[in-house]
Specification:
By secondary structure, the protein is mainly α. The chain contains 8 helices and no strands.
């Protein structure tokens, strides 16, 4: 567990260096679960043995889920403070008190539901980004990024799993979620540049892919609605 947390924190604190490390280790045929610039010749493993090293899906989901508990705690504290301030200014009002109790229960259930569903939603999020990066690697493939399909899958997984380490920023009260979101984009960019070997323009285009997919899906939905309305 200590080794997993060590790699998780390394990915969070050294995004560019960690991705560069992954790439160099892949080129020499070995990975290690730590950020180090020193190679121990006695510990070099065969390429087949070390291909999948790094943060696994279970490991990164578990660590990120742990960090999400901090956000849930902050949300509960914010609700408590908000309710206390509301009671202080509103005084005693039976109708408002009943409405407040209902709102309290719904808010708490919502927070708990988010905590429960977090690893599932994060798993879908990671799979989406992995497939986007794999697709982009084929589109932008050249002599620098061309690799076997298995290698591309490993690279994409390393990039996405490392970007999920930004959930460590959720320990920051109130602003942690915004920092985490922006940080995840920066970390994916770091992986695209330092691990996959894309140039700046290609990396930015990959980062814009989810927005393009959302725009495309929204456009198709709007067109479908318009055609349905016109059919009557």
């Amino acid at each position: 567990m200590t080794e997993v947390l060590n790699l998780y924190f390394n990915c969070a604190l050294h995004p560019f260096a960690q991705q560069e490390y992954f790439r160099k280790k892949r080129q020499v045929g070995a990975y290690e679960n730590q950020l180090s610039l020193v190679d121990d010749e006695n510990d070099i493993k065969s390429l087949a043995q070390v291909k999948d090293e790094g943060l696994t899906t279970i490991e990164v989901l578990s660590c990120s889920w742990l960090m999400y508990f901090f956000k849930a705690f902050y949300d509960l504290m914010a609700l408590f403070l908000g309710w206390s301030a509301y009671n202080f200014f509103q005084g005693e009002n039976y109708d408002l008190h009943i409405f407040q109790q209902t709102g309290q229960k719904l808010a708490i259930y919502s927070i708990l539901l988010k905590v429960i569903l977090f690893p599932i939603l994060l798993w879908f999020y990671s799979k989406l980004w992995i497939n986007i990066i794999k697709m982009s690697s084929y589109v932008f493939s050249d002599e620098n990024v061309a690799a076997a399909e298995k290698d591309i899958n490993i690279i994409a997984t390393q990039i996405v799993h490392s970007s999920l380490s930004t959930h460590i920023f959720l320990v920051i009260p109130f602003f942690g979620e915004m920092v985490q979101f922006l940080g995840s984009l920066v970390y994916i960019y770091a992986g695209l540049r330092r691990n996959l070997g894309l140039n700046k323009l290609q990396s930015f285009l990959v980062l814009l892919t989810p927005a393009f997919l959302v725009f495309l899906a929204t456009s198709l939905m709007m067109v479908s609605i318009v055609m349905l309305i016109l059919s009557f």
